[in-house]
Protein backbone atom coordinates (compact mmCIF):
# COMPACT_ATOMS: atom_id res chain seq x y z
CA UNK A 1 0.00 0.00 0.00
CA UNK A 2 1.35 3.46 -0.87
CA UNK A 3 1.60 5.97 1.94
CA UNK A 4 -0.86 8.81 1.50
CA UNK A 5 -1.15 9.40 5.25
CA UNK A 6 -0.50 13.13 4.98
CA UNK A 7 -2.88 13.70 2.09
CA UNK A 8 -6.20 15.14 3.17
CA UNK A 9 -9.29 14.60 1.02
CA UNK A 10 -12.64 16.34 1.50
CA UNK A 11 -15.60 14.31 0.21
CA UNK A 12 -18.67 16.49 -0.46
CA UNK A 13 -21.78 14.44 -1.23
CA UNK A 14 -25.28 14.44 0.24
CA UNK A 15 -25.54 10.64 0.00
CA UNK A 16 -24.29 9.01 3.20
CA UNK A 17 -23.69 5.67 1.49
CA UNK A 18 -21.55 7.35 -1.18
CA UNK A 19 -19.48 9.15 1.44
CA UNK A 20 -18.97 5.90 3.33
CA UNK A 21 -17.97 4.10 0.11
CA UNK A 22 -15.45 6.78 -0.83
CA UNK A 23 -14.10 6.96 2.71
CA UNK A 24 -13.58 3.23 2.75
CA UNK A 25 -11.70 3.35 -0.57
CA UNK A 26 -9.51 6.28 0.41
CA UNK A 27 -8.75 5.32 4.01
CA UNK A 28 -7.73 1.85 2.88
CA UNK A 29 -4.93 3.59 0.97
CA UNK A 30 -3.95 5.87 3.85
CA UNK A 31 -5.72 9.11 2.87
CA UNK A 32 -7.19 11.22 5.66
CA UNK A 33 -10.86 11.81 4.82
CA UNK A 34 -13.24 14.57 5.91
CA UNK A 35 -16.87 14.70 4.86
CA UNK A 36 -19.38 17.45 4.03
CA UNK A 37 -23.06 17.03 3.19
CA UNK A 38 -23.33 19.80 0.62
CA UNK A 39 -21.41 22.64 -1.01
CA UNK A 40 -22.11 25.06 1.81
CA UNK A 41 -20.69 22.74 4.45
CA UNK A 42 -17.81 21.97 2.10
CA UNK A 43 -16.94 25.66 1.84
CA UNK A 44 -16.96 26.02 5.62
CA UNK A 45 -14.50 23.12 5.87
CA UNK A 46 -12.07 24.36 3.21
CA UNK A 47 -11.99 27.77 4.87
CA UNK A 48 -11.00 26.21 8.20
CA UNK A 49 -8.77 23.31 7.20
CA UNK A 50 -6.18 22.53 4.53
CA UNK A 51 -7.02 19.89 1.91
CA UNK A 52 -5.05 18.29 -0.90
CA UNK A 53 -8.18 17.35 -2.86
CA UNK A 54 -11.94 17.83 -2.83
CA UNK A 55 -14.23 15.19 -4.35
CA UNK A 56 -17.53 16.90 -5.10
CA UNK A 57 -20.96 15.71 -6.22
CA UNK A 58 -23.06 17.96 -8.50
CA UNK A 59 -26.65 17.60 -7.26
CA UNK A 60 -26.82 18.45 -3.58
CA UNK A 61 -29.30 20.37 -1.40
CA UNK A 62 -28.59 23.97 -0.36
CA UNK A 63 -25.49 24.37 -2.54
CA UNK A 64 -24.73 22.25 -5.61
CA UNK A 65 -21.26 21.19 -6.65
CA UNK A 66 -20.95 23.66 -9.54
CA UNK A 67 -21.79 26.63 -7.30
CA UNK A 68 -19.32 25.29 -4.73
CA UNK A 69 -16.63 25.22 -7.41
CA UNK A 70 -17.35 28.76 -8.62
CA UNK A 71 -17.15 30.02 -5.04
CA UNK A 72 -14.00 28.04 -4.24
CA UNK A 73 -12.17 29.33 -7.31
CA UNK A 74 -13.08 32.92 -6.41
CA UNK A 75 -11.22 32.67 -3.07
CA UNK A 76 -7.59 33.57 -2.43
CA UNK A 77 -4.80 31.05 -2.81
CA UNK A 78 -4.13 28.47 -1.50
CA UNK A 79 -7.86 27.75 -1.00
CA UNK A 80 -8.75 28.53 -4.61
CA UNK A 81 -6.06 26.14 -5.83
CA UNK A 82 -7.40 22.97 -4.22
CA UNK A 83 -7.77 20.32 -6.95
CA UNK A 84 -11.40 19.30 -7.39
CA UNK A 85 -12.64 16.01 -8.76
CA UNK A 86 -16.33 16.25 -9.69
CA UNK A 87 -18.38 13.07 -9.46
CA UNK A 88 -21.91 12.93 -10.72
CA UNK A 89 -24.58 10.81 -12.29
CA UNK A 90 -25.11 13.64 -14.74
CA UNK A 91 -23.33 12.20 -17.74
CA UNK A 92 -24.45 14.80 -20.30
CA UNK A 93 -21.87 16.92 -22.07
CA UNK A 94 -23.57 20.02 -20.70
CA UNK A 95 -22.80 19.07 -17.11
CA UNK A 96 -19.22 18.14 -17.86
CA UNK A 97 -18.76 21.46 -19.63
CA UNK A 98 -20.34 23.33 -16.69
CA UNK A 99 -17.99 21.56 -14.28
CA UNK A 100 -14.98 22.38 -16.45
CA UNK A 101 -16.03 26.04 -16.76
CA UNK A 102 -16.44 26.22 -13.00
CA UNK A 103 -12.88 24.99 -12.51
CA UNK A 104 -13.10 21.23 -12.07
CA UNK A 105 -9.83 19.37 -12.59
CA UNK A 106 -11.61 16.20 -13.67
CA UNK A 107 -15.10 14.71 -13.94
CA UNK A 108 -16.01 11.11 -13.11
CA UNK A 109 -19.44 9.65 -13.89
CA UNK A 110 -21.04 7.53 -11.17
CA UNK A 111 -21.13 4.72 -10.28
CA UNK A 112 -17.39 4.78 -9.61
CA UNK A 113 -15.21 1.84 -8.66
CA UNK A 114 -13.20 2.30 -5.47
CA UNK A 115 -9.94 1.56 -7.30
CA UNK A 116 -10.71 4.26 -9.88
CA UNK A 117 -11.49 6.82 -7.20
CA UNK A 118 -8.33 6.06 -5.25
CA UNK A 119 -6.24 6.20 -8.41
CA UNK A 120 -7.50 9.67 -9.31
CA UNK A 121 -7.12 10.83 -5.70
CA UNK A 122 -3.47 9.76 -5.83
CA UNK A 123 -2.93 11.62 -9.09
CA UNK A 124 -4.48 14.86 -7.87
CA UNK A 125 -2.76 14.69 -4.51
CA UNK A 126 0.53 14.57 -6.36
CA UNK A 127 1.33 11.20 -4.90
CA UNK A 128 3.06 8.49 -6.87
CA UNK A 129 0.76 5.62 -7.71
CA UNK B 1 -32.38 72.62 29.29
CA UNK B 2 -34.22 73.55 26.16
CA UNK B 3 -36.99 71.40 25.04
CA UNK B 4 -36.05 69.42 22.00
CA UNK B 5 -38.81 69.06 19.56
CA UNK B 6 -39.26 65.47 18.60
CA UNK B 7 -38.82 65.17 14.87
CA UNK B 8 -41.90 64.23 12.99
CA UNK B 9 -42.03 60.55 12.15
CA UNK B 10 -41.00 59.94 8.58
CA UNK B 11 -43.91 59.02 6.39
CA UNK B 12 -44.27 55.29 6.13
CA UNK B 13 -43.38 53.82 2.80
CA UNK B 14 -46.74 52.91 1.34
CA UNK B 15 -47.19 49.20 0.90
CA UNK B 16 -47.32 48.44 -2.79
CA UNK B 17 -50.80 47.64 -4.01
CA UNK B 18 -51.56 44.40 -5.79
CA UNK B 19 -50.89 45.82 -9.23
CA UNK B 20 -47.56 47.23 -8.10
CA UNK B 21 -46.49 43.86 -6.74
CA UNK B 22 -47.35 42.18 -10.02
CA UNK B 23 -45.46 44.82 -12.00
CA UNK B 24 -42.49 44.80 -9.65
CA UNK B 25 -42.24 41.04 -9.93
CA UNK B 26 -41.67 41.22 -13.68
CA UNK B 27 -40.21 44.66 -14.30
CA UNK B 28 -38.65 45.80 -11.03
CA UNK B 29 -34.99 45.93 -10.04
CA UNK B 30 -33.37 42.80 -8.59
CA UNK B 31 -34.29 43.93 -5.05
CA UNK B 32 -37.84 44.84 -6.05
CA UNK B 33 -38.40 41.50 -7.79
CA UNK B 34 -37.02 39.72 -4.72
CA UNK B 35 -39.39 41.66 -2.44
CA UNK B 36 -42.33 41.18 -4.79
CA UNK B 37 -41.74 37.43 -4.96
CA UNK B 38 -42.10 37.24 -1.20
CA UNK B 39 -45.33 39.27 -1.27
CA UNK B 40 -46.96 37.73 -4.32
CA UNK B 41 -48.39 34.78 -2.39
CA UNK B 42 -50.92 37.21 -0.91
CA UNK B 43 -52.44 37.89 -4.32
CA UNK B 44 -55.31 35.85 -5.75
CA UNK B 45 -53.48 35.44 -9.07
CA UNK B 46 -50.20 34.45 -7.36
CA UNK B 47 -49.70 31.19 -9.22
CA UNK B 48 -49.75 32.52 -12.82
CA UNK B 49 -47.69 35.53 -11.74
CA UNK B 50 -45.01 33.40 -10.10
CA UNK B 51 -45.06 30.95 -13.01
CA UNK B 52 -44.34 33.73 -15.49
CA UNK B 53 -41.75 35.37 -13.25
CA UNK B 54 -39.90 32.10 -12.73
CA UNK B 55 -39.72 31.45 -16.47
CA UNK B 56 -38.13 34.88 -17.05
CA UNK B 57 -35.94 35.19 -13.96
CA UNK B 58 -32.17 34.97 -14.43
CA UNK B 59 -30.92 36.16 -11.00
CA UNK B 60 -30.35 33.22 -8.63
CA UNK B 61 -31.47 34.89 -5.39
CA UNK B 62 -34.68 36.20 -6.96
CA UNK B 63 -35.33 32.79 -8.49
CA UNK B 64 -34.87 31.23 -5.06
CA UNK B 65 -37.37 33.70 -3.59
CA UNK B 66 -39.87 32.64 -6.27
CA UNK B 67 -39.26 28.95 -5.54
CA UNK B 68 -39.75 29.69 -1.84
CA UNK B 69 -43.01 31.52 -2.56
CA UNK B 70 -44.28 28.57 -4.59
CA UNK B 71 -43.27 26.19 -1.79
CA UNK B 72 -45.07 28.42 0.70
CA UNK B 73 -48.25 28.10 -1.36
CA UNK B 74 -47.86 24.37 -0.87
CA UNK B 75 -50.44 23.27 -3.42
CA UNK B 76 -50.26 20.50 -5.98
CA UNK B 77 -50.50 23.22 -8.64
CA UNK B 78 -47.56 25.21 -7.28
CA UNK B 79 -45.52 21.99 -7.07
CA UNK B 80 -46.35 21.37 -10.74
CA UNK B 81 -44.80 24.74 -11.61
CA UNK B 82 -41.55 23.77 -9.89
CA UNK B 83 -41.20 20.25 -11.29
CA UNK B 84 -39.97 21.15 -14.82
CA UNK B 85 -36.95 22.86 -13.24
CA UNK B 86 -35.73 19.46 -12.03
CA UNK B 87 -34.79 18.97 -15.70
CA UNK B 88 -32.75 22.15 -15.92
CA UNK B 89 -29.22 22.04 -17.32
CA UNK B 90 -28.26 24.42 -14.52
CA UNK B 91 -27.35 22.52 -11.34
CA UNK B 92 -28.27 25.52 -9.15
CA UNK B 93 -31.78 25.55 -10.64
CA UNK B 94 -32.18 21.82 -10.06
CA UNK B 95 -31.06 22.27 -6.47
CA UNK B 96 -33.44 25.19 -5.88
CA UNK B 97 -36.32 23.20 -7.36
CA UNK B 98 -35.45 20.14 -5.30
CA UNK B 99 -35.16 22.16 -2.09
CA UNK B 100 -38.53 23.78 -2.78
CA UNK B 101 -40.26 20.44 -3.44
CA UNK B 102 -38.73 18.98 -0.30
CA UNK B 103 -40.18 21.91 1.62
CA UNK B 104 -43.72 21.01 0.48
CA UNK B 105 -43.86 17.23 1.00
CA UNK B 106 -47.64 16.94 0.93
CA UNK B 107 -47.96 18.73 -2.41
CA UNK B 108 -44.88 17.08 -3.91
CA UNK B 109 -46.15 13.64 -2.88
CA UNK B 110 -49.05 13.99 -5.32
CA UNK B 111 -46.55 14.11 -8.21
CA UNK B 112 -44.05 11.64 -6.84
CA UNK B 113 -45.38 8.40 -8.40
CA UNK B 114 -45.17 10.07 -11.83
CA UNK B 115 -41.70 11.47 -11.17
CA UNK B 116 -40.44 8.06 -10.05
CA UNK B 117 -41.58 6.70 -13.42
CA UNK B 118 -40.20 9.61 -15.48
CA UNK B 119 -38.40 8.68 -18.69
CA UNK B 120 -35.36 10.71 -17.57
CA UNK B 121 -33.19 8.77 -15.10
CA UNK B 122 -31.86 11.99 -13.57
CA UNK B 123 -35.41 13.07 -12.72
CA UNK B 124 -36.15 9.68 -11.15
CA UNK B 125 -32.96 10.05 -9.13
CA UNK B 126 -33.95 13.48 -7.81
CA UNK B 127 -37.43 12.14 -7.07
CA UNK B 128 -35.85 9.66 -4.65
CA UNK B 129 -34.57 12.65 -2.71
CA UNK B 130 -38.10 14.07 -2.54
CA UNK B 131 -39.35 10.72 -1.21
CA UNK B 132 -36.96 11.13 1.71
CA UNK B 133 -39.22 13.82 3.26
CA UNK B 134 -42.38 11.69 3.11
CA UNK B 135 -43.54 9.57 6.05
CA UNK B 136 -41.22 6.56 6.24
CA UNK B 137 -43.85 3.98 5.28
CA UNK B 138 -44.91 5.91 2.17
CA UNK B 139 -41.31 6.53 1.11
CA UNK B 140 -40.36 2.88 1.58
CA UNK B 141 -43.34 1.59 -0.41
CA UNK B 142 -42.70 3.94 -3.34
CA UNK B 143 -38.97 3.24 -3.41
CA UNK B 144 -39.35 -0.52 -3.11
CA UNK B 145 -41.67 -0.40 -6.15
CA UNK B 146 -39.11 1.74 -7.97
CA UNK B 147 -36.20 -0.60 -7.22
CA UNK B 148 -38.20 -3.59 -8.46
CA UNK B 149 -38.49 -2.10 -11.96
CA UNK B 150 -35.46 0.22 -12.15
CA UNK B 151 -32.71 -0.50 -14.68
CA UNK B 152 -30.40 2.41 -13.90
CA UNK B 153 -27.89 1.61 -11.11
CA UNK B 154 -27.58 5.26 -10.03
CA UNK B 155 -31.33 5.55 -9.52
CA UNK B 156 -31.31 2.31 -7.54
CA UNK B 157 -28.45 3.71 -5.44
CA UNK B 158 -30.42 6.89 -4.71
CA UNK B 159 -33.44 4.83 -3.65
CA UNK B 160 -31.31 2.55 -1.49
CA UNK B 161 -29.78 5.61 0.19
CA UNK B 162 -33.26 6.59 1.41
CA UNK B 163 -34.38 3.02 2.15
CA UNK B 164 -31.36 2.62 4.41
CA UNK B 165 -33.07 5.19 6.64
CA UNK B 166 -36.75 4.39 6.14
CA UNK B 167 -36.79 0.69 5.20
CA UNK B 168 -38.10 -2.21 7.23
CA UNK B 169 -37.67 -5.96 7.12
CA UNK B 170 -40.08 -5.92 4.16
CA UNK B 171 -37.46 -3.96 2.15
CA UNK B 172 -34.81 -6.67 2.48
CA UNK B 173 -36.29 -8.88 -0.25
CA UNK B 174 -36.28 -6.05 -2.80
CA UNK B 175 -32.72 -5.13 -1.87
CA UNK B 176 -31.62 -8.74 -2.31
CA UNK B 177 -33.21 -8.89 -5.78
CA UNK B 178 -31.52 -5.62 -6.72
CA UNK B 179 -28.11 -7.03 -5.77
CA UNK B 180 -28.76 -10.01 -8.06
CA UNK B 181 -29.71 -7.74 -10.97
CA UNK B 182 -26.51 -5.65 -10.79
CA UNK B 183 -23.69 -8.08 -10.00
CA UNK B 184 -21.13 -5.91 -11.85
CA UNK B 185 -21.69 -2.75 -9.81
CA UNK B 186 -19.45 -2.71 -6.73
CA UNK B 187 -20.98 0.49 -5.33
CA UNK B 188 -24.47 -1.00 -5.44
CA UNK B 189 -23.24 -4.15 -3.71
CA UNK B 190 -21.68 -1.96 -1.02
CA UNK B 191 -24.81 0.22 -0.68
CA UNK B 192 -27.15 -2.78 -0.51
CA UNK B 193 -25.04 -4.53 2.11
CA UNK B 194 -24.83 -1.36 4.21
CA UNK B 195 -28.58 -0.71 3.90
CA UNK B 196 -29.43 -4.31 4.81
CA UNK B 197 -27.13 -4.13 7.84
CA UNK B 198 -28.75 -0.89 8.98
CA UNK B 199 -32.29 -2.16 8.48
CA UNK B 200 -31.43 -5.45 10.14
CA UNK B 201 -30.00 -3.72 13.18
CA UNK B 202 -33.19 -1.72 13.84
Could you describe the 3D structure shown?
The complex is a heterodimer of chains A (129) and B (202). With 129 residues, chain A is α/β, with parallel strands linked by helices. Chain A has a 5-stranded parallel beta sheet, with helices on both faces. The radius of gyration of chain A is 13 Å and the shape is globular. Chain A has one domain: Rossmann fold (3-Layer(aba) Sandwich). In chain A, helix 1 (16-27) packs across helix 5 (114-124). Chain A contains 5 helices and 5 strands. Chain A has helices spanning 16-27, 39-48, 65-73, 93-102, 114-124; strands spanning 8-12, 32-36, 53-57, 84-88, 106-109. The model of chain A has no long low-confidence stretch (mean pLDDT 91). In chain A, helix 4 (93-102) links the parallel strand 4 and strand 5 (106-109). Chain B is an all-alpha fold and 202 residues long. Chain B has 2 domains: 19-115, Leucine-rich Repeat Variant, CATH 1.25.10.10; 136-202, no CATH class. Chain B is built from 12 helices and no strands. In chain B, helix 4 runs antiparallel to helix 5 (76-82). The mean pLDDT of chain B is 91. The chains are: A alpha/beta (129), B mainly alpha (202). At the A-B interface, helix 1, helix 3 and helix 4 of A face helix 6, helix 8, helix 10 and helix 12 of B.
Brief characterization of the structure:
The complex is a heterodimer of chains A (129) and B (202). Chain A is of the alpha/beta class and 129 residues long. Chain A has helices at 16-27, 39-48, 65-73, 93-102, 114-124, and strands at 8-12, 32-36, 53-57, 84-88, 106-109.
Summarize this structure as a short list of keywords or feature phrases.
heterodimer; A: 129 residues; alpha/beta; Rossmann fold; B: 202 residues; mainly alpha
Amino acid sequence: MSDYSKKRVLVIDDAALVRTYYRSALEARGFVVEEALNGLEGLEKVLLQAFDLAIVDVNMPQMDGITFLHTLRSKELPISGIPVLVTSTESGMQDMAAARRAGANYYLVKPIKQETLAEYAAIFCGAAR
Amino acid sequence: MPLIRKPASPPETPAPDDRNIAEMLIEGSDDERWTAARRTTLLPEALPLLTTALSKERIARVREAIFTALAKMGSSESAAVIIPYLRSDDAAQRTAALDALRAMPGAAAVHLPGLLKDADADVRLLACEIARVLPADDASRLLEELIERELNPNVCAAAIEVLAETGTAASLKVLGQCATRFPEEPFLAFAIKTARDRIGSR
